[in-house]
Amino acid sequence: MFQIAASIPPKWIDLAPGIRGLFRHGPSEAIVSARRHLRMVMEQDDRSDPEFAFVTGCVIWGLVEWEGVGAADGDGVADLTADNIVALLRQRPDVYDKLDRTYVQSIVDAAAEKKGSGRSPTGTSTEVPPFATPAATAPNAPIAKTSRAARPAKRSGRSSKAAPAN
Q1: Do 136 and 47 touch, CB atoms closer than 8 A?
Q2: Mind giving me the DSSP string for 111-140?
Q3: Is pLDDT at 113 greater than 70 in this prediction?
Q4: Could you tell me which residues are beta bridge partners of residue 19?
Q5: How far, in Å, CA of 56 to CA of 34, rounded?
Q6: Are 77 and 67 in contact (CB under 8 A)?
Q7: What does the pLDDT read at residue 133?
Q8: How many CB atoms lie within 10 A of CB 42?
């Protein structure tokens, strides 16, 4: 039975040394926001990277506070705006990758679980045991020669040439 959580508080994620963000939870809303952002970006420029736009849309929706991101003019912390978030993700591939692998992947996984196609934590189902012998314990293949010697082709007794007239 699915248990409804009253409220899941935002969570801090360390993005890079000295940079961290506070992200809210809400897979359904994040997916909707990411799709909306993706459509908007692709309508503006169809050469844009859809994966980058999707990740950016999730992050724009989920990020509610950040630390360690300085303003362009060097005066304090940068304002938390969609443009500044996109700039951070473009300028810091390590931050983009971390968010893609952690925050966005958790949203995508949660959406997959709702559809009944989430990943199994162990990689196999408990109802269906693995049927293949693991490679490390499988017996080795025979070393002896296994192919037969080539046989000469059988002759059918017919010739493709016309028979001589008598």
Answers
A1: no
A2: HHHHTT-PPPTTSS-SSS---SPPTTTSPP
A3: yes
A4: 16
A5: 7
A6: yes
A7: 47
A8: 14
**Average pLDDT over the chain, rounded to whole?**
81
Mean pLDDT computed over 50-58: 95
Residue for token pair 């693995």: 130
- In angstroms, the CA 38 to CA 32 distance is 10
Average the pLDDT over 24-32 and give the result: 90
Q: Which of 3, 8, 37 is nearest to 25 (CA)?
A: 8
pLDDT value of residue 63 = 97
C-alpha distance from residue 6 to each of 3, 12, 107 (Å): 9, 19, 18
Alpha-carbon separation of residue 84 from 27, 78, 148 (angstroms): 23, 7, 70
Q: What band does 132 get if pLDDT is binned at 50, 70 and 90?
A: very low
Provide CB contacts within 8 A for 122, sequence distance 6+: none
What tokens does 148 get? 């037969």
| Contact present, 77 and 65 (Cβ < 8 Å) | no
